[in-house]
Amino acid sequence: MNPDVWPAVLGRFQWHSLPFVRAWENPTASELIGAGAALIVIVGAVLAIALISWLGKWRYLWSEWLTSLDHKKIGIMYIALALVMLSRALIEAVLMRMQQASAINSAGFIAPDHFAQLFSTHGSIMIFFMAMPFLTGAINFVMPLQIGVRDVAFPLLNSISLWLTGGAAGLMMVSLVVGRFSTGGWTGYPPYTELAFSPGVGVDYWIWAVSLGSVGSTLTGLNFAVTIYKMRCPGMTLMRMPMFVWTALCTSIMMVFAMPPLTVATALLALDRYLGFHFFTNDLGGNMMNYANLFWLFGHPEVYILILPAFGVYSEVVSTFSTKRLCGYTSLVLATMAIAILSFTVWVHHFFTMGQSPNINAVFGIATMAIGVPTGVKIYDWIWTMFRGEVRFTVPMLYSLAFMITFMLGGLSGIILAFPPLDYLVHNTLFLVAHFHNVIIPGVLYGLLAGYHYWFPKAFGFRLSEKWGRVSFACWLVGFYLAFMPLYVLGFAGVSRRTQGMFDPAFRPWLYIAGAGALILLAALGALLVQLWVSVRDRDDNRVATGDPWDGRGLEWSVSAPPPEYNFAVIPHVASRDAFYGEKRDGDPYAPPARYEDIELPKNSRTGPVIGIVGAAAAFGLVWHMWWLATLGVVTIVATVIARSFVRDVRRTIPAAEVERVERSWLHAVAEAKAIPREIETTSANQGLAEASA
Amino acid sequence: MSASEMRHPGLNLGGADERTHEQAGGAVFGFWVFLMSDAVLFALLFATYGAMLPATVGGPTPASVYKILPAFFETLILLSSSFTFGMASVALKHKASRTQLLGWMGVTLGLGLAFLGMELHDFAIMFGNGAYPTRSGYLSSFFALVPLHGLHVFLGCIWIVVMMVQLLTFGPDARVRINILRLGLFWHFLDIVWIAIFSVVYLQGLIR
After folding, report:
1. A256 vs B: CB within 8 A
2. Which of A388, A392, B83, B85 has the greatest number of C-beta atoms within 10 Å?
3. Residues A330-365 pLDDT 10s
4. What would the CATH number be for the domain defined by A57-543?
5. Which of residues 632 through 651 in chain A touch B, CB cutoff 8 A?
């Protein structure tokens, strides 16, 4: 074949793009780590495919999970994705800590370019492919159950969002095997990320992975907002919604309005890089300060998109495990809304040093401090909820308590950063890194892990191992303090963030402590995985099929665990907040309905997988300048959407007899189960039926 | 709830088709939310345009490249197309004959394509006069904002064709009717964005 054809087919791909080739030619530790990571991705993928084939589970996987439009399964898939990506990004964090601890007046073992890729992927993954899928999955699973509906407003769109996120995460994994990733950090600031300074494929990987993910999140926000506004069960007025639904609503509204700025920022950067536009270039009228504004117009609300659902989880957990009604519900609702609105007014505090006038900085500094007020209201409400309650120190409750104290510290260092003159001193230092990990780890990760432990029995029908949960919790807590408190010290001493090598031996002890902390955090993840393994192995001892293991308050606890695919045999009517809790005490929540009816649910669809996979392929084509692939991908997506609009047979019916059979067998199990008091809820006596104490 | 009650902003199917009217509540509201998200995209591109307006770098300026007369005719065409789509919506609501509905949609499609043709012609002239996006920050921002609206109109045209084919295939079933309601919102939304473009970009350009 004519050798001129290859560039048209393979774009700018060369053998040298493969990390194995690079490691062969230049076998340094840094390159070998890169090749090792690529090998893990390939071996992992091959093993997964082999395992599924060996078990003969392809058909099951395809028809029960990948094409499913069931919000519960989509939610679980989101969380599985988040845990996989968490593992990768945490390992990267450990590598960076080890590098800094070993590079005091020496080269360390990771080359500067590789180190820059590590902090770029670590940040991008933790925000876009760990935190976002985790919270989206949690909302997907829980929210429809809590408001008494059978699915979200647009089930197909939900699947498309999942697959866009999954495709984008896949692109992140592919970047380990083919080419290199961006060295421009998770924020991708130009002009460094412009073609003139970053000509390789890295920034393009970042642009398209983030763009796919942000479109997915916009559609998710739309879907959730419409579900909550339009579909709540009869009697579920706005002020009767569980707190988690309120936070989900605020997060959804913020996704609808805050994700487009990210799309604009990455799209304009792409226009610069692909078509030679001059939005953020150094010459011909480009202005990178526009990028900072656009990016943080997304970036700051994003912080609260991440944190609000976790606040919702804490509200549920603290109330349930304090055996008390949530204190100050109305103030929590108002505080959540206030945070959602204020979060759009503070973005400039991410670049106080950019050169705008002091008055502008003052306005944004004050707005930033103002956010502390509604957040403080929330902390007080949770404390008052615990006050004189019968607090049970289960794993989710431990996370909640650790959150309250740790997040307070992070919030206080945030107030320091909100003063522009103080911010000038520590801008771009490890102090900032310490601060945002200090709010995001307790504020997002602890919250989502608390939710994971809290709702896992609902999703799978058995409780997670309490012992390993505590081990993991202890490691997340201790590891966090050891890893990040030293960074405050180092930041005050002036160590700038993203530094590959250190020169002052006085930093050594702090870097060693932080390194040890990172290893303990890795152990925490290990304990979490062991917990999953142990819990699945011992699942028969910990079944809670009746569905109410914690004496829960919301509607999600009123159905079996795992819930039937239609969620509710009869759509519930509620007359108060915490309806299920009240009914357990004043009525009979397990009374069979007078009659069962046929239930309509959406049929499975291949549209989501097609759009996600083809979208990722098109993005890959754009990254590597394989124009045929990019064009083919875009055309295929448009054609898929049009073809799908012609499909009329999109719903299936579950006959009333089938519903009755499922419900009767569950109600039979309820009748057999023994109601237990709260003291023994973490033992195998817990079958998911709560003894209703007054 | 009574059929005459408003389920969503904009034209409601109401008592003329009660079952679809029920479903339309969430479906059309969802599309409104999408349009609001889309409006944020345009708002940011307007802001970017405003910020980059001075960045002409010695190249073409707004006053030197904009031709107000074609832009005015484009405005008239697009406004007329909103009117003709409005007639299509009325035909849909009051169950006029399928020919009438298809006719109004066809006219709208024709006007949309005429708009796109004129706009592409304008761009070609601009390119000919040395006003291309890689020339300056100002022209970059122009060619991000205005063609994005054009791209939306193009997608709207494809959507009209798809809906016309579906009308012929399925007749006005519930999904077709709801999607035509959404298409109508989309089309009017593009009209509003264009009015902003005409005022902020073209009219403002006259005085610069």
Report:
1. yes
2. B85
3. 999 999 999 999 999 999 999 999 999 999 999 999
4. 1.20.210.10
5. 638, 642, 645-646, 648
CA A4 to chain B, closest CA, distance in angstroms equals: 28
Nearest to B37 among A260, A290, A294 (CB): A260
Q: How far is A131 from chain B (nearest CA, A)?
A: 22
Q: Is the dihedral of CA A120, A124, A130, A131 positive or negative?
A: positive
Residue A277: which of B37, B134, B173 has the nearest Cβ? B134
Q: What is the mean pLDDT of residues A441-448?
A: 97
- DSSP assignment string, A630-682: HHHHHHHHHHHHHHHHT----EEEE-HHHHHHHHHHHHHHHHHSPPB-GGGTT
A-chain CB neighbours of B53 within 8 Å are: none
- Nearest-angstrom CA–CA distance, A372 and A487: 23
With beta carbons under 8 A apart, name residues in chain B contacting A228.
Answer: none
What would the pLDDT profile of A234-292 be if each residue is shown by its tens digit?
A: 999 999 999 999 999 999 999 999 999 999 999 999 999 999 999 999 999 999 999 99
Q: What percent of chain B has pLDDT over 90?
A: 82
Q: How confident is the model at residue A2 (pLDDT cuts 50, 70, 90)?
A: low
Above 50 in pLDDT, residue A457?
yes
The DSSP-derived string for A517-561 is HHHHHHHHHHHHHHHHHHHHHTGGGSB-TTS-TT---SGGGGS-S
Residue B148's pLDDT band (cuts 50, 70, 90):
very high
A261 touches chain B (CB under 8 A): yes
The helix or strand, by DSSP H or E, that contains position A38, with its residue range, turns out to be helix A29-55
Structure confidence by residue, pLDDT tens digits, A362-406: 999 999 999 999 999 999 999 999 999 999 999 999 999 999 999
* pLDDT bracket for residue B95 (50, 70, 90): confident
Nearest CA of chain B to the CA of A219: how many Å?
Answer: 8
Contacts of B56 in chain A (CB under 8 A): 285
CA distance readout (Å), A357 to A30, A289, A300, A625, B51: 43, 14, 20, 42, 17
What secondary structure letter does DSSP report for A500? Answer: S
How do the domains of chain B map onto residue ranges? 15-53+62-206
Write down the domain spans for chain A.
57-543, 544-605+650-694
Inter-residue contact A243 to A312 (CB < 8 Å): yes
Inter-residue contact B8 to B32 (CB < 8 Å): yes
Is A501 an 8 Å CB contact of chain B? no
Please report the pLDDT score of residue A7 as a whole number. Answer: 83
A92, A518 contact by CB (below 8 A): no
- DSSP output for B174-207: HHHHHHHHHHHHHHHHHHHHHHHHIIIIIIHHHT
Q: Position A289: which residue type?
A: M
Overall CATH class of domain B15-53+62-206:
mainly alpha
Highest mean pLDDT among B5-9, B14-18, B170-174, B193-197: B193-197
Q: Do B169 and A645 touch (CB under 8 A)?
A: no
Classify the C-alpha dihedral A278-A283-A286-A287 as positive or negative.
positive
Q: How far is CA A216 from the centre of its chain?
A: 13
CB A179 within 8 A of CB A202: yes
What DSSP line would sit under A190-230, residue for residue? TTTTSTTT--SSHHHHHHHHHHHHHHHHHHHHHHHHHHHHH
* Separation between Cα atoms, residue A284 and residue A293, nearest integer Å: 20
User: CA-CA distance, A258 to A344, in Å (whole number)?
Assistant: 8
